[in-house]
């Protein structure tokens, strides 16, 4: 679009803005332009400015600043809790029992007062017999006759709203951490500045032309439409972005995974999040002294702390398997199995719980099932770990099931997910033999995405299963990270509207 076309296509408000800005030497804020032009509302200025910026006629710059004000005058009138407590301590000779202080200050505020007395080194707290004694410090005595920094700031805010640059950063941060003291407001200062193109438009003889943007029934019925200038429709003009409704990226990946497995002939299953350790650990031949059963790895429940086990015959066979290997030829783990340990209630640490429970109810082939559900582990939150995450679980039980079939199923799945380079490495898991780890190539590097293997006889024999069971447990979030090119797991769960808007529909 050349300059003449831009000039011809300017609306009346756009022309008004440019002429007003020219009178203000080419640079002003929206309020100044509103006063200098013939606008009905301030919003008309910003709407016109947005259109002019899209055409390159002006530039909008924004500067954000914070201002603070008092939320309530109570802290000014009554004084901060620590100030009132400090005065009481002074009146009582510098020392008080916490019960007496609580009665004087109030139960609701005594903990606040004590916390800030200690933080500001205004008082010391000690245990004496069965009592808690608060003693004023030297710093506390010195503060009896002078204002604290936060009190001084509150007094200044009582006079009116103040910008951030006029306040001490540490003091205002301390006040923000406390409830009901200060209010923070974010202000945006906007400046409109004419560009070289804008100046050229003005020099070309820019004029305000009153135009009609829409034909109304009145204009048509009265014939006035013949006497008005109808604004031209320009398909090249800026238009606001319209974002369609979308599913969350994680939901879309989950739907894709489910479709792939269903198309491959699998049925989806799931079980409860809360399980006894028996199904989460013991039934999978995980020894009762395994590190994964410790509190640093597993979330155990307080209520209920134990769960009743369902099948006594299965329990006896699993016990026998742990102690001596049953009839498999294995030696087992060679320890005294504890039923109480197996009854402990926990949040499941893997979705293999789903598959072993399904096998308990369906011990005869063929079985082809998968699950995509939440598991829970006592992990510290960082870029690659979460305490709650998804797992893709699956098993195949057939008469002729083989290790090659297992590798083929996994390759087929990842191939349909768009990963062509897949490799397997030997891996160890208590309940499979042989075991493997699955890796895919991503951006010229190999990434581990899960484990797989063939269930050991120690797992399958107690359930009367006579055929090979192929099993896998694959990472869900890590797969989603690769699909969406993310580096941090946490990005999948934050409220990022822009991520949702800019992500492709498929």
Q: Beta-strand percentage?
A: 15-25%
Number of helices: 22
Which architecture of the largest domain would the CATH scheme give at its second level? 2-Layer Sandwich
Widest beta sheet: strand line-up: 10-13-14-18-17-16-15
**Average pLDDT reading:** 90
- Category from helices, strands and their pairing: alpha+beta
What is the distance, rounded to the nearest whole angstrom, between the alpha carbons of the first and last residues?
Answer: 34 Å
Give a count of the beta strands, DSSP E runs of length 2 or more: 18
Largest sheet: 7 strands, mixed
Number of domains as seen in the coordinates: 3
* CATH topology category name of the largest domain: BirA Bifunctional Protein, domain 2
| Proportion of helical residues | 25-40%
Q: Quick one: CATH class of the largest domain?
A: Alpha Beta
The Rg value, from CA coordinates, equals 36 Å
The parts where pLDDT drops under 50 for at least 5 residues are none
> Assembly type of the shown chains?
single chain
3D shape = flat
CATH superfamily annotation of the largest domain: Bira Bifunctional Protein, Domain 2
Describe the structure.
The protein has 506 residues and is an alpha+beta fold. The chain folds into 3 domains: 3-64 and 188-230, Winged helix-like DNA-binding domain superfamily/Winged helix DNA-binding domain (Arc Repressor Mutant, subunit A, Orthogonal Bundle), CATH 1.10.10.10; 74-183, Orthogonal Bundle (Arc Repressor Mutant, subunit A), CATH 1.10.10; 252-273 and 349-500, BirA Bifunctional Protein, domain 2 (2-Layer Sandwich). The protein is built from 22 helices and 18 strands. The chain has helices spanning 3-9, 12-23, 30-36, 42-54, 74-78, 81-91, 98-105, 107-119, 138-142, 149-157, 169-176, 196-203, 217-222, 249-263, 277-280, 312-324, 339-342, 352-361, 403-416, 457-460, 477-484, 497-502; strands spanning 27-28, 58-70, 95-97, 123-128, 131-136, 162-163, 182-194, 211-212, 229-230, 267-268, 274-276, 345-347, 367-376, 388-397, 422-426, 432-442, 445-455, 469-475. The strands form 5 sheets. A 7-stranded mixed β-sheet has the order 10-13-14-18-17-16-15, with helices on both faces. β4 and β5 (131-136) form a beta hairpin. The longest helix is centred in the middle third of the chain and has 15 residues, at 249-263. The chain is flat, with a radius of gyration of 36 Å.
């Amino acid at each position: 679009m050349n300059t003449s076309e831009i000039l011809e296509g300017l609306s009346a408000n756009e022309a008004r803005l440019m002429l007003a800005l020219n009178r203000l030497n080419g640079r002003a804020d929206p309020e100044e332009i509103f006063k200098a032009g013939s606008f009905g509302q301030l919003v008309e200025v910003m709407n016109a400015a947005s259109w002019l910026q899209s055409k390159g006629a002006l530039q909008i710059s924004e500067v954000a600043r914070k201002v603070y004000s008092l939320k309530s005058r109570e802290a000014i009138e009554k004084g901060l809790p620590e100030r009132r407590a400090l005065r009481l301590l002074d009146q009582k000779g510098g020392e008080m029992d916490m019960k007496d202080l609580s009665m004087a200050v109030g139960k609701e505020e005594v903990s606040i007062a004590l916390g800030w007395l200690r933080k500001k080194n205004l008082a010391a707290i000690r245990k004496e017999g069965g009592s808690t004694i608060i003693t004023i410090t030297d710093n506390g005595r010195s503060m009896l006759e002078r204002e604290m920094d936060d009190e001084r700031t509150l007094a200044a805010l009582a006079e009116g709203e103040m910008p951030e640059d006029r306040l001490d950063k540490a003091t205002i941060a301390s006040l923000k951490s406390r409830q009901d003291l200060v209010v923070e407001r974010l202000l945006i200062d906007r400046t409109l500045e004419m560009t070289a193109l804008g100046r050229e438009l003005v020099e070309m003889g820019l004029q305000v032309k009153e135009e009609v943007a829409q034909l109304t029934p009145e204009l048509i019925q009265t014939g006035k439409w013949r006497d008005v200038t109808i604004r031209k429709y320009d398909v090249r003009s800026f238009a606001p972005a319209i974002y369609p409704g979308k599913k969350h990226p994680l939901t879309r990946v989950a739907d894709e995974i489910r479709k792939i497995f269903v198309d491959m002939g699998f049925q989806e299953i799931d079980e409860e999040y809360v399980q006894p350790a028996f199904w989460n650990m013991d039934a999978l031949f995980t020894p009762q002294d395994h590190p994964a059963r410790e509190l640093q790895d597993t979330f155990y429940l307080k209520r209920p702390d134990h769960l009743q086990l369902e099948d006594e015959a299965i329990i006896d066979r699993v016990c026998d398997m742990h102690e001596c290997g049953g009839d498999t030829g294995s030696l087992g783990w060679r320890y005294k199995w504890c039923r109480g340990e197996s009854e402990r209630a926990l949040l499941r640490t893997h979705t293999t719980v789903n598959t072993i429970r399904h096998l308990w109810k369906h011990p005869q082939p063929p079985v082809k099932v998968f699950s995509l559900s939440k598991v829970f582990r006592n992990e510290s939150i960082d870029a690659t770990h979460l305490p709650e995450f998804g797992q893709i679980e699956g098993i195949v039980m057939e008469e002729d099931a083989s290790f090659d079939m297992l590798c083929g199923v996994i390759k087929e799945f990842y191939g349909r997910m768009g990963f062509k380079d897949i490799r397997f490495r030997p891996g160890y898991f208590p309940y499979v033999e042989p075991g493997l780890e699955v890796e895919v190539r991503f951006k010229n590097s190999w990434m581990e995405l899960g484990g797989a293997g063939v269930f050991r006889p120690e797992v399958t024999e107690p359930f009367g299963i006579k055929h090979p069971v192929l099993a896998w447990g694959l990472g869900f979030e890590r797969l989603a990270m690769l699909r969406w090119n993310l580096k941090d797991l946490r990005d999948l769960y934050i409220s990022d509207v822009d991520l949702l808007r800019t992500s492709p529909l498929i």
